[in-house]
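Anyone have tokens for Glucose 1-dehydrogenase? Sequence:
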Amino acid sequence: MNQLSGKIAVITGASMGMGEAHARLFVERGAKVVLADIADDLGAALAAELGENAFFVRLDVADEQDWAHAVDATTRRFGAPNVLVGNAGLAGSNTRTADLSAEEYQRTVDVDMRGIFLGMKAVLPGMVEQGGGSIVNISSIAGFAHQPQSPNIAYTGSKFAVRGMTKSVASEYGRYGVRANSIHPGAILTPMLQEAFSAEVQAKVVADIPIGRMAAPREVSEAVAFLASDAASYVSGTELVVDGAMLAQ
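Reply: yep, here.
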């Protein structure tokens, strides 16, 4: 159970849903984990539950100064981060393009795209200095093709961008020992999904999944842990799809 021993991980959106599952698994596997989120109470409570190898930092992923603070706090507590899990995301409303406000579009892009960029920008200097690291960004199957159940153009566009930005960093920083990969979940049973989709829509989604069910968040966490670990030492610039064969159809 020491798969992630020696890893110092910053996980964004870590207070609930997939982020919480990632944080729990990382601590279980031996990592030191910084739970970074805007949900102060939930994040602090989870960090306290996870014990001395976890602590909470308030982070708005769209704020560059917050990122500087988060990396500094991580370095002072555990050392420079050598793993970043870009998990924080905003789905937004299920709105057609012509009806989507520019304000909602920008809010989604700020979290889902700008947040990924700022996170990588913040941790890369430290990773280069220590001779390497692993970045795992959470995209979506919507990063390959717009899905009927995808909320809107801002979400789909951002998930495509995450895929491309991750590849760019993998190419630019591979020579420094930094790996970057994206994970593309399908239907994962999280609070965000349950909030975004009615029970009727959820049932329709399940009907289109060859495996016949949505995934538990921990099933994605296992993929994240693999890419963060040394077992994936030659895996970089790629996409790992965790979707129960939805894209295989």
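The CA atoms of residues 167 and 237 lie 5 Å apart.
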